[in-house]
Design brief:
Distance between the termini: 44 Å
Largest sheet: 5 strands, parallel
Strand content: under 5%
Helix content: 55-70%
Radius of gyration: 33 Å
Length: 933
């Protein structure tokens, strides 16, 4: 491997649920056993899963065997031989012979050391089954038989009989097989069916990795961070099969690695000539082709086609999906396509283009037509089809497809005589449509370049078109982080003037202006301009113009957001009206879900915010083809979990981030993840994350107030953690320097109060009054009482108890509990302090605020308020778990380290806290560290 690629063991990704399920199954073995079968296509990670499962199983005898293909059929009894050898290694020859009883000599057929005299080979299966049955009565026994798709009949019989014995004996049997090797006539099928009828097997089919999981695995294999475009390409081409992800990540080039290509072609090369021709025809058409289209291209009678299809299906190369044929895996299509001769490719691509022109003109069909004409080197027809494909993809909100189609059109532009005539539009118009698709797909830098070229090319006499293009440029400038876009919008509005014929266009520009003002924190102006947009579009909505109706919907959303952001609770209610107008429009609905869930967080309705954001994720997955908006909604889900006090749950999210190009969406999510690290108590991790994302945050936060204010809070908290009060104040002053943040300024008042209190402790001071004025400006806002209570308590002007039960972020309430305990301790109330700090440690631990829990525990320890119970009351396993708790590991991480289930870890942790009389994990960890010292 090259560069930073990882050599050796790659982490198991996306299989934690499967691992936990297997561990729970083996933990459940009692007087009766369990039998599980793990299945999946080749490369799904079955062997790696079973390896990780078996490593570290305590007090268990694990025997493992794998069936093998000899090339001409199953190699007989290889798995059974492996099982017996493992058994001898674990228990010794004498113990195995004793357990086998009188039939022990029969085992010598496979393991000569087990025979004293020649045995009866015909009794082998009976002796093996009885051997394992006898040992299951005296040992915790785990039997694993892998790759049953290559099993001979005797091995199949032994495995099936062991599964039946597991129903009555304390025996754990774990089987695995490849689904793509078990066809309709495979002898394993009836064996599994019979066991299923008896309800003797638990099936555990392995799912393909999600795009986020594929990205995580690719990054782990490569060793260095990969660009979002590369990760998306790997995720798409691998289709979530781990082996393919690893191969593609190891080479990360456009061409298939030779090693992977050779593996993929093994099945293809075993086909007869007719089936190979069918596979090449299908590969030219893509991963999936409808029967009527392929029938037109195949050239042969129906019987020949049927025979070829059946051969390819039986060989597990092709699957039938309704009325279409598809390769079992997309990489198989790539490998087979590479086998075509150049003349064969041209002929088949031409045939496909002609055949598809008779099909319904969907976005996909039109894109396919453009692709086939381009591959057949017919540029004029490819260009015309590309324009049609872009138009259809845009209507379907498939922005990546629309962007790709537009870029292909532009590549062909100079190769076609009279391209304007062929396409029906100017190059500037193609650039405009492509830039709009690119920005919707979150590819902002490329969108900006295309939009700037479009403006330069746009005819001066096309007033409406030029104004609309300038409006598009303004949006892209803002999204790309190069300016707020207002100058371009004002230029566009000046071009349009007051001509009543251009009302819808003017309303659209006003909408863009309102959105920029909203995102930049100019909320009152944003609301005012949004109202102008609604009024301007109003005359056209009465005539049923859908463009005008969508403008009204989005303008209502902007007004609702602006009003709520400045502390007007009536803005929250306005979202319901906005939703009614937004329902017919996908983009408006996505903005509804993003803005409304965010607003619910600002008023302290965190569970409602999670519900709305989760609903938005589901809506987005079914209506939007691109990741950008989904990342923004995922960021809101994370943020709502953070505020609700589910910090560990929030930490499990954010998987889409590596797949997204840098932009407003990713910058906002990165900032929230920094805040999460701070509240989890991982200051070093927060500093590192902030530094890694600083360029992105600085660039896109410059014109987006939420990210800017979030960063100010993060930087202030980090400065306080370092004891740098002056630096913390320099970040907090954003609260009063500008009104852009609205209610987002409230957390900064707490940062400022703590910083001023620190200064006063050192005999210094600073002006706190501007922050007091900020709080007074939002006195009617639902979460202001919490921040006002923290502000007063930090300055010694009020009790911490006022903040403990106020509405607002759970972390801040936990912080207030710790500070209340500190105050009681400082006042000499040791009994009260112990009670409050113990409860604070427990509450913080429940939230996942490890730093706060540690702080509360340290306060009790330093003050001598902890009465440590002896660690001698713990079992050996509990000691192991406690040691890992002290290292800061979560239950899931402990489960991975000890190879037990998360549920089992939870039981151990509860027992540890009870026995040690510790109020929290952090307190238990402190007891461990003191006793280990």
């Amino acid at each position: 491997m090259m560069g930073g690629m990882q050599i050796g063991r790659v982490p198991l990704v996306g299989r934690q649920a499967d691992l936990d399920a297997l561990r729970e199954e083996v933990d459940a073995v009692g007087s009766e056993g369990r039998a599980v079968v793990v299945s999946g296509d080749a490369g799904m990670g079955k062997t790696r899963l079973l390896r990780d499962f078996t490593e570290g199983l305590d007090g268990v005898v694990v025997v493992r065997g794998a069936c093998v293909d000899s090339g001409s059929g199953p190699a007989p009894l290889t798995a059974v031989t492996d099982l017996l050898r493992d058994l001898v290694d674990a228990l010794g020859v004498d113990a195995v012979r004793a357990a086998a009883g009188p039939g022990a000599d029969a085992l010598g057929v496979l393991v000569p050391a087990l025979a004293h005299t020649p045995g009866d080979a015909e009794r082998l299966a009976d002796v093996v089954v009885e051997l394992f049955s006898q040992l299951a009565r005296t040992h915790r026994l785990v039997i694993i038989v892998e790759d049953l798709h290559w099993a001979d009949s005797t091995t199949c019989d032994i495995a099936a009989r062991l599964v039946r014995r597991a129903a009555v004996l304390p025996l754990f049997v774990l089987l695995s097989y490849r689904t793509d090797d078990v066809g309709r006539a495979h002898p394993l099928r009836p064996v599994l069916a019979e066991l299923d009828r008896g309800r003797l097997l638990t099936h555990r089919p392995l799912a393909r990795l999600s795009p986020a999981e594929s990205g995580a695995l690719a990054t782990a294999v490569h060793g260095d961070a990969l660009a979002p475009g590369v990760l998306n390409d790997i995720a798409a081409r691998s289709e979530g099969i781990p082996f393919y992800v690893e191969e593609l990540a190891s080479f990360s080039g456009a061409r298939l690695p030779v090693s992977l290509r050779d593996v993929l072609l093994l099945r293809y090369e075993r086909l007869d000539a007719a089936a190979r021709r069918f596979a090449r025809v299908l590969a030219t058409g893509g991963v999936e082709v409808a029967h009527p289209v392929l029938r037109e291209v195949f050239h042969g009678d129906e019987a020949d086609l049927e025979d070829a299809v059946r051969s390819a299906v039986d060989a597990q190369i092709v699957v039938i999906r309704d009325d279409a044929y598809a390769f079992r895996h997309a990489l198989m299509q790539e490998a087979v396509y590479a086998e075509l001769l150049p003349t064969e490719r041209t002929r088949l691509h031409t045939a496909y283009a002609v055949a598809l022109e008779d099909a319904a003109p969907t976005a996909r069909v039109l894109a396919d037509i453009a692709h086939h004409w381009r591959a057949a080197r017919v540029p004029d027809r490819a260009l015309a089809a590309g324009v049609a494909a872009q138009r259809a993809a845009s209507v379907a909100s498939a922005w990546s497809t629309a962007a790709e189609a537009g870029e292909r059109v532009l590549e062909l532009w100079d190769a076609v005589p009279e391209p304007e005539k062929v396409s029906g539009m100017s190059r500037a118009e193609v650039l405009r449509r492509t830039s709009a698709a690119l920005v919707s797909a979150n590819r902002n830098d490329r969108a900006l370049a295309f939009a700037q070229e479009a403006v330069a090319l746009w005819p001066e006499d096309d007033v409406v078109g030029r104004a609309e293009m300038l409006g598009d440029l303004a949006t892209i400038e803002f999204q790309a982080g190069v300016s707020d876009g207002i100058e371009s919008i004002e230029q566009a509005l000046a071009i349009l003037g007051d001509d009543p014929r251009h009302g819808v266009q003017r309303a659209g520009l006003l909408l863009s202006s309102a959105r920029v003002h909203m995102l930049n924190g100019r909320q009152s102006l944003g609301d005012e301009v949004a109202a102008q947009a609604r009024a301007t579009a109003g005359t056209s909505t009465s005539a049923g113009d859908p463009a005008a109706e969508e403008i009204v919907a989005q303008a209502l959303l902007i007004s609702a957001t602006c009003r709520a952001s400045v502390g007007d609770v009536r803005g929250v209610a306005l979202f319901e009206e906005a939703r009614g107008h937004s329902a017919p429009f996908v983009r408006a609905m996505m903005r509804y879900y993003i803005n409304y869930s965010n607003t619910l967080m600002q008023v302290g309705r965190y569970d409602d915010a999670v519900g709305v954001a989760q609903e938005g994720l589901e809506y987005g997955r079914s209506h939007v083809a691109d990741l950008g908006p989904l990342v923004m909604i995922e960021a809101n889900v994370i943020e709502a979990h953070i505020y609700a006090g589910r910090l560990r749950e929030a930490e499990q999210l954010g998987g889409l981030l590596p797949l997204v190009e840098p932009g407003l969406y990713s910058a906002f999510l990165r900032e929230r993840l920094v805040c999460l690290a701070i509240w989890r108590g991982r200051i070093d991790g927060a500093e590192a994350a902030l530094e890694a994302a600083r360029l992105e945050l600085d660039r896109f936060g410059a014109y987006e107030y939420q990210t800017r204010f979030g960063m100010a809070y993060d930087l202030g908290e980090l400065a306080l953690a370092r004891g740098d009060a002056r630096q913390a104040l320099s970040h907090a002053q954003l609260a009063w320097e500008t009104s852009a943040g609205g209610v987002l300024a409230l957390p900064l008042t707490a940062v400022a109060a703590r910083a001023v209190a620190m200064l006063r402790e050192r005999g210094e001071d600073a002006d706190i009054e501007p922050y007091r004025a900020v709080l007074a400006g939002f006195d009617a806002w639902p979460v202001t009482p919490l921040w006002a209570a923290v502000f007063a308590a930090e300055l010694g002007e009020g009790p911490w108890t006022a903040a403990i039960d106020a509405a607002g972020p759970a972390y801040v309430r936990a912080y207030s509990r710790v500070r209340h305990g500190e105050a009681l301790l400082a006042g000499g109330d040791r009994t009260g302090a112990r009670e409050v700090l113990a409860a604070a440690a427990s509450y913080a631990d429940e939230l996942g605020a490890d730093g706060l829990a540690a702080r509360a525990t340290a306060l009790m320890t330093d003050a001598g308020l902890t009465g440590d119970a002896s660690r001698s009351v713990l079992t050996a396993r509990e000691e192991q778990v406690l040691e890992l708790v002290a290292e800061g590991l979560s239950n899931g991480q402990i489960a991975e380290r000890l190879y037990i289930s998360v549920k089992t870890v939870s039981v151990h942790v509860s027992a540890i806290l009870r026995k040690l009389e510790a109020p929290s994990r952090t307190a238990a960890a402190a007891i461990y560290r003191r006793s280990a010292a």
